[in-house]
Design brief:
By secondary structure, the chain is of the alpha+beta class. The structure holds adenosine-3',5'-cyclic-monophosphate. Residues 293-394 form the Cyclic nucleotide-binding domain.
Amino acid sequence: MAAGRQRWSTQIVAGSERSPGVLLLRYRRHSGGDDQVGATLGASKATKAATGATSAAVKWRRQLERGQMTRPQSTAFEMSNKNKELMNDIFTNCKLKNGFGPSVQATAAATSPTKRPLSPDHPNPALPITETPSPAMNRMGWALRTLLVADNSSCLKDRKVSGKLIRKCAPGTELVDWLVNLSPIVHTRAQAAGMWQALLEEGVLAHVNKEQPFKDKCFLYRFRIDEEGGTAAAGVPQAEDLGAANEHIREALSALFQRGPDATLRMILRKPSHERTSEELELVFEELVHIAALSHLSTSIKRELSSIFVFEAHAQAGTILFNQGDEGRSWYILLKGSVDVVIHGKGTVATLKTGDDFGKLALINDAPRAATIVLKENNCHLLRVDKEHFNRILRDVEANTLRLQEHGKDVLVLERVAKQRGQHSAFKYTVMSGTPAKMLEHLLETRLGQSVGGMDPFLDDFLLTHIVFMPVVQLVDELANYFHCDAHEDAQTPEDREYIINFKKRVIQFMQKWVMAVRHAAFEEPSVCDFIEDLAAEVEADPDLNEETSIVHNVLTQMARYQEDRNQNAGQKWKLPPNGQPICLFSGNATPSKTVIRPDDDIIFRVYCADHTYCTLRFPMHTTAELIKACAADKLQLNRGPEDLVLVEVKSNGERSVFKDNDVSIPTGLSLNGRLFVSVKDHLDALTQLQEQECPTEGVDIDLEILSTKELAYHITLFEWDLFWAVHEYELLYHTFGRHHFGKITANLDVFLRRFNEVQYWIVTELVSTPSLSKRVGLVRKFIKLAAYCKEYQNLNAFFAVVMGLSNMAVSRLQQTWEKIPSKFRKIFQEFEALIDPSRNHRAYRVFVGKLQPPLIPFMPLLLKDMTFAHEGNKTSLDGLVNFEKMHMMAQTMRTIRFCRSRSLGLEPPSPKSEGEVRSYISSFRVIDNQRVLTAMSQKVEPTRKL
Ligand code: CMP
């Protein structure tokens, strides 16, 4: 979408939900210089379409009567034959009081029909549903009137009502009598009344005061032609007219007979609920059964809907039903005709047809309308449910899945989810999958700009995971397009301007939330910084965006802080010491704590070759394996082309793992005592580990016994808090999907994970390298206490590492040692082991950690397992759409990290005994990470007892 995005401007003259205007939209495309009128329908084309639909319906009806066809679901709302009979019975049996009664709708009477919109809030069943009668209806009306006027005994007479002369009018009862007598096909009075109503709903006939639909009562009705007066109305018909009318009457009666039941049904659906009789409701209910959009609803809900569905008819193609951005007030089912779904910046994205429904997204999400709905044809018929009824009856039972299409393809799939705590609405649609651009549009159009306070979970998920499906550069491009949606506008109406300003505000809000969610990572791409600066300049220059200046300034300040920090720490160098010690800062201006490893920081490390000679290299962290390989081969004079070489890690147990050429973050990704080798591909098997890899890594030599356990736990926690703090949530994504997909480093996460292994193997190394039994017993007790303190400090990463170290096979087999551990300690240790028990997906730990409040250091390997589980168990793309459920799962895990760090660490320091020593000791442990070596050492200190 980015560069080639077409721009459409919308000129909206008037019209909104409930008071639609006519032919109001003009869409202009701004891709080239050519203006293109897009959505205004040619009336002739639309009329043709409508006529086509009518004749098809008649044909269908005839076929139905001949029993040649079964009724399809969700065609135009025309009554089933069974119900026609039912209705005929109802009306035949109804004991209606004839004669003039009080006005049914006093308000309707007071309002001039000509001034009323065709489908107001409360449609008036006394008024026509078309602007003008169709030629066919006009002709039917003409034939009936001609015969009525020619009949001397006819009821059509000039009458005086309340002192006023009304020409050629007749009471409903007499019109019904006449029709029943006229035709043998009309068996019941109700059938006749329906036929007159069919004429009334097209305006061929009308109640004299426009207050009543057709009723078999003494209300007076007259033909439109007589209302207008003129020559056509005057006098007795000529013989040739009479002949023509007689010739036409059979066909006219047959057509009216067909239309009568539908006209009656539409009349019922335009009456206020309280005026619908139980028989009428039954009739409506029977018809709702045939509507596909309601097929998933229960009988009781359909019964409820029978009383609140409102029938709307719109005469003109081009009418706007509602506008994008409007408040959602109703849900609609299209009974006849078609509508265009129009989106700012895109034009018409979909056309909905008979049987389709629309408009529940805004109702369920309490969000603005996601699109403008424009009638594509003349004479569209809709069923409407208003918001209050929708909320009461449908909100909780509405279909679970909503699919939005554009140009015939799914672009957004939403699913209804149960209310989350603190949410304002009972149920919300959440995004299950979508195209990246549509999801962004959905966010900007409907999820921003209204709620204050907390972050919308969908927005947060999107911000945390968009790098998987929408690279930053593309996101910025899209945002810039949205922000500059008025760039090609010459003249703007006030409505346009308001819409555009609101949109700009939402882009600014999005930017603010983006920075809030991902912090400095948002500024790492230069295009983002450029965009923010542009944004700031435009906001300052636009008085309509006055209120947004503080938001933009805040973002600018954070960006400046990030840039300052970056400049200050530029040129940071790290070192991977040769003897397996942890990665350490080699030179740089950064404060020793909370130092983040950045992609362009240098790292110094060794690369070995098969004969164990090595070279020392210095490269930025983001350097690819391919470059490192080539450079090392050159320095080590391997004289082979890059295609023959591989970069490989040889672990302390001799295991080899080859790096992909496009992988980055290589030195930090090594295991504790692993070494980096460059090798000829074919000689990979010849690589052996260095002798030093079997020895402990270099660490501070100190007598552990003299160090305070609490102080150890305290400094381990401070140290690990800093490492944890430096890890960005994005690193979890890079780690899970593979760094090479993003070209981004995971150095901070690597260092944190290395630390976990370091602590774990330190425990084992210390124990198996202590020959004295009593000292070993003392150490085990110390480590159990250490685990307890780590747990108390909520450093669960270290807690796991210590307990796992104590459970290591090389330690658990030290029978003599464990026998001497007091039962109190053994019990505590058992409890700890139960806590790290991996069964039922680490349930014990999850329950425990779920009760903790931040700050806390989580057991990181489990978070990575959750990420991997989500990744491997779910496809990233489903039928060409981003599987956003997967993104949501991943974002949940990423949010855990945010939660753990949401409060700063403020531990009470234990009274210091040997602070300096402890600090230097815990920063680099002596560690053997080769299980075979550890087990052998364990055997040595406690040989297996012979039975
Ligand atoms: P709502 O947002 O309430 O109002 C506009 C309606 O258009 C929307 O609900 C959907 O029901 C319907 N619609 C159909 N296709 C799309 C689409 N591609 N994008 C947005 N809305 C659509």
